[in-house]
Structures are given as structure tokens and as C-alpha cells.
Design goal:
The protein is an alpha+beta fold. The chain folds into three domains: about 20-70, Arc Repressor Mutant, subunit A; about 80-130 and about 200-235, YebC, transcriptional regulation domain (Alpha-Beta Plaits, 2-Layer Sandwich); about 130-200, YebC, transcriptional regulation domain (Alpha-Beta Plaits). Helix content is about 45%, strand content about 20%. The chain has helices at about 1-15, 20-35, 45-55, 60-70, 105-115, 145-155, 175-185, 210-225, and strands at about 80-85, 95-100, 120, 130-140, 160-165, 165-170, 195-200, 230-235. The chain has a four-stranded antiparallel beta sheet with strand order 3-1-2-8. The chain has a four-stranded antiparallel beta sheet with strand order 5-6-4-7, with helices on both faces. Helix 2 (about 20-35) runs antiparallel to helix 3, helix 2 packs parallel to helix 4 and helix 5 (about 105-115) packs antiparallel against helix 8 (about 210-225). The protein is globular. The two termini are about 15 Å apart. It comes from Brevibacillus agri. GO terms for molecular function: DNA binding. One of its GO terms (cellular component) is cytosol. InterPro entries: Integrase-like_N, TACO1_YebC-like_2nd/3rd_dom, TACO1_YebC_N, Transcrip_reg_TACO1-like, Transcrip_reg_TACO1-like_dom3, Transcrip_reg_TACO1_YeeN, YebC-like. It is found in: Cytoplasm.
């Protein structure tokens, strides 16, 4: 699990480097979540998860409020949730999640990002079976033993609890996201370095230096697309 945590940190660091683009992506995701249910995180679990993620990326309250108010105001921007699967150099695997109001445009842009960087798009199901949907929480200031005690007291089962780089990482089933969050909340823990619903590769691969450089260029091209919200992969990016 350790290398997977490194990949999550690496991904978050790369996203932090482009805050305006990240804020725009979160604005869209918050709007869609608020539009699909009640614009109140206490009664809309999807919105609550997005807001928790936004918090770990320090998304300004003004952007969050604007997106929710836009949904409340009955704006009629319609977005489709799409998932693309593909391959990078040396058989590396990639999953791309997008929110778009123009399916043809997004498909064309994602395909181009793959093709121009040594990859190619696959058919639905060609990659996803090698990934596990996972809830991941990262927190500081506690030991793994303390976190385990908190979760046991709340009778919450998780897959794994690890201590790495001064942080405790909790891996759980996606449906346990809110149970884990509530257990921490009752213990007075409301700040997380990571609070994500993600896709973790069952097995990771290591690329040569040249192939990894090409792969990272491809991932950057995909993440730079306005319609792309999340990119998951099975490459060990190292430290």
C-alpha cells in the first residue's frame, strides 16, 4: 500500500501546483453534486464527499458557495459523467474520469492526450478491473494504534491502517467513507491531509526512466484538460 500512498501524494502535489485550474474543476464538481441532490451536504452525501476533498485542497469558500448557489438558482448546465480507460507506455494502465457538457469534444481531447504521448484508449472494462474503488484518509498527529482504537470503538471495519512519512493512512471500502469520517469526527478529528474516494491499482508497475518521463507527460496532458476531473494509474512514481 505504501507506493500507492506515494502516488496519491504525488498526484495531489501536482494538482496543488495549478490552483486556478483545480478550483475550476472543483467548482464544476460541486455544482453537479449539488444539482443532483439537495444543495445541503448534510442531506447530500455526494456533495459532502466533494466538499471534504475540496477542503484538503484549500479551495476557497467563495468558490464553494458560488457553485452551490448556482445549483440552488436552477442553472441548467447539464454535465455527463464519463469514464475512459487506456494504456500508457509499456502497458501501464490509466483511468480518466470526466465531467462534460460536450461528450464528443471530451472523447476527442482525451484520445489525443493518449495518442500524442505514447498511449492509446481502450474499450470500457479493459483497465478498470485491475483497480479497486477505495476510500482513503490521511491524517497527522495520531499513531496507527490510536487510529485503530478510534475505529474499533466506532465499530468501523477498514482494509488497512499504515503509518508513513509522519502520517497515518486509512484504506477502507468506498461505502465506509462516511462511517470512517464520522468516527474521526466524534474523536475530534476534522482535518485530513487526504480524504478521497479513489481507484487504487491492484498491482503497480515500474517504468524505465525514459518511459516514466513519457508517462508523466501523458498524465499531465490528461489532467490539464478542462473536462477531466480525476486520473488514476498503476505506475509507481517513486519518491
Amino acid at each position: 500500500m505504501g507506493r500507492k500512498w506515494n502516488n496519491i501524494k504525488e498526484k495531489k502535489a501536482s494538482k496543488d501546483a495549478s490552483t486556478s485550474r483545480i478550483y475550476a474543476k472543483f467548482g464544476k464538481e460541486i455544482y453537479v453534486a449539488a444539482k443532483q441532490g439537495e444543495p445541503d451536504p448534510e442531506s447530500n452525501r455526494a456533495l459532502k464527499i466533494v466538499l471534504e476533498r475540496a477542503k484538503t485542497y484549500s479551495v476557497p469558500k467563495a468558490i464553494i458557495d458560488r457553485a452551490i448557489e448556482k445549483a440552488k438558482g436552477g442553472a441548467e448546465e447539464n454535465y455527463s459523467e464519463l469514464r475512459y480507460e487506456g494504456f500508457g507506455p509499456n502497458g501501464s494502465m490509466v483511468i480518466v474520469d470526466a465531467l462534460t457538457n460536450n461528450v464528443n469534444r471530451t472523447a476527442s481531447e482525451v484520445r489525443a492526450a493518449f495518442n500524442k504521448n505514447g498511449g492509446n484508449m481502450g474499450v470500457t472494462g479493459s483497465v478498470a478491473y485491475m483497480f479497486d474503488p477505495t476510500a482513503v484518509f490521511g491524517l497527522e498527529g495520531k499513531t496507527a494504534e490510536e487510529v485503530l482504537e478510534i475505529l474499533m470503538e466506532a465499530e468501523v471495519d477498514v482494509r488497512d491502517i499504515l503509518e508513513e512519512d509522519g502520517a497515518v493512512i486509512v484504506y477502507a471500502e468506498p461505502e465506509q467513507y462516511h462511517a470512517v469520517q464520522e468516527a474521526f469526527k466524534k474523536a475530534g478529528i476534522t482535518e485530513f491531509t487526504v480524504a478521497e474516494l479513489t481507484m487504487l491499482a491492484q498491482n503497480e508497475v515500474t517504468l524505465s526512466e525514459e518511459a516514466q518521463a513519457q508517462f508523466e507527460k501523458m498524465i499531465d496532458a490528461l489532467e490539464d484538460l478542462d473536462d477531466v476531473q480525476q486520473v488514476y494509474h498503476n505506475v509507481d512514481l517513486g519518491e
